[in-house]
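Sequence only, no structure available. Ideas?
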Amino acid sequence: MTLAIFGGTFDPVHLGHLSVAWEAAELLDAEVRLMPASVPPHRDAPMASAAQRVAILRAALQGQTRLTLDTRELDRAGPSYTIDTLHELRAEQGERPLVLLVGADAFANLASWHRWRELFAVAHVGVLSRPGVSATLPDELEDEVAGRRVVDTADVRGAPAGKVIELAVTPLEISATRIRELLAAGRDPRYLLPAGLFDEPALLAPYRA
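Reply:
I predicted one. Tokens follow.
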């Protein structure tokens, strides 16, 4: 089975994250690992600690087996560079197809990532996009991916790395920033977070004022 990687700070993980990860798993017939970043190079440090974010993720992922948790970036010192993670996974997984899942906006900025051209040597890229909407890419990125684009998931399953496939998913307009604001104000953002998180109040304590 294809292995897909979905990274982020998950501060906290919410239904928007989980819904697109689940759709990608179904579209690719893949196991999807949610991989929380330790020190994200492109954004502010998370509010919750690594242990707190892991506890929330474990609670959110209960009751199913298709979405799993991988904490390797939290266990590694220094910035969480995606290319280092993918090289590590490739060494572990052999020729298993690997897919890096990224949102369309993040993909449009891929050329700003650390050693970005190496990504295609170790993984496919699955671009999570709105149905019927395509982002405009800078020229150097478009030149790199033009010959890599595929539309059939069989092309991804048939090779370990090197392809770019657009995955039309149903994005939920949920903001982790807004969730943190609501929790800090003493409100419960139900239906934005997995229901099980409200059964264990301590899980959300890092975000409450």
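The longest strand covers residues 2-8.
Hope that gets you unstuck.
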